[in-house]
Amino acid sequence: MLRGVCWLSTRMSYADHDGQLAVRIAREAIEARLLGRGKRPFEIPKAFEDKAGAFVTINNHPGGDLRGCIGYPQPFFPLVKSIERAAESAATEDPRFPPMDREELDRVTVEVSILTPPRLIEVKKPKELPGHVTIGVDGLSIAQGQYRGILLPQVAVEEGFDASDFLSQACMKAGLLADAWLDPETRVYTFQAEVFAEVDPRGPVVRRNLEAAHAGH
Q1: Sign of the four-CA dihedral 209, 167, 81, 51
Q2: Do 112 and 22 form a contact (C-beta atoms < 8 A)?
Q3: Residue 202 confidence (pLDDT)
Q4: What is the pLDDT of residue 7?
Q5: Distance CA 134, CA 200 (A)
Q6: What is the pLDDT of residue 70?
Q7: What is the CA 182 to chain-centroid distance, rounded?
Q8: CB atoms within 10 A of CB 194
Q9: Does domain 119-190 have CATH number 3.30.1490.150?
Q10: How far apart are CA 164 and CA 133, in angstroms?
Q11: What is the model's pLDDT at position 11?
């Protein structure tokens, strides 16, 4: 649920070892759910007890096709819980895909995006919105009436969108027309993410530099 400008701040600039832990937590939550066992415990740093939004993306390996992606854009839960809940849901509850089975665990990679809370873009005219969206930095959240849609920052980079394309795609993700961002009733929010991903199944975890990837296009 996107309800306007955030009501609290969140810690960002996570260290690489934090990202590695985030991905391990997500992988463990997925495996525990699919294997029907309890989650193995981790030593959780204080930063992971602070409330923060997170998305977990599961990709087929080595092809890289999406297998599931669900998350929490708002800081409703402690980060560790956001990651665990998103991971379990991405594996078994993404309506675009059938639930994963245990045989897939060795054929997918896990990616965790740790989010800042969405912030409303305020402009005098909607046509000014693209100037307030930075590809490779910002994700988008769209809200109009009952319609909601969110696209992570890496989507624009991976698909080669410019700011206008990204706004249109976010509107369509919300179930709106592509040009709905030009409607004054549409609220557009940006957020940022730190993204950490497995290189291969259960393999090393790296930080994704979205700005550098965008610059390389």
Answers
A1: positive
A2: yes
A3: 97
A4: 31
A5: 29
A6: 97
A7: 24
A8: 22
A9: yes
A10: 9
A11: 45
What integer is the mean pLDDT of 74-86?
Answer: 97
**Could you write out the DSSP letters of every residue in 68-117?**
EEEEESS--SBHHHHHHHHHHHHHHT-TTSPPP-GGGGGGEEEEEEEEPP
Query: Which positions ≥6 away from 125 have C-beta within 8 Å?
Result: none
Compute the distance between CA of residue 47 and CA of residue 188 in angstroms, rounded to an integer: 28
Tokens 């698909």 correspond to 159
pTM for the whole structure? 0.90
pLDDT at 101: 96
Q: Where are the domains of the chain?
A: 16-116+194-208, 119-190
For 16-116+194-208, CATH gives 3.30.700.20
CA nearest 80: which of 57, 99, 56? 56
The Cα–Cα gap between 55 and 191 comes to: 12
Check if 16-116+194-208 and 119-190 are the same fold.
no
**What is the share, in percent, of the chain residues with pLDDT greater than 70?**
93
- Model pLDDT for residues 167-208, shown as the tens digit of each residue: 999 999 999 999 999 999 999 999 999 999 999 999 999 999
Q: Is the pLDDT of residue 10 over 60?
A: no
Q: How many CA atoms lie within 13 A of 136 on its CB side?
A: 10
Q: Which residue has the tokens 């992606």?
A: 69
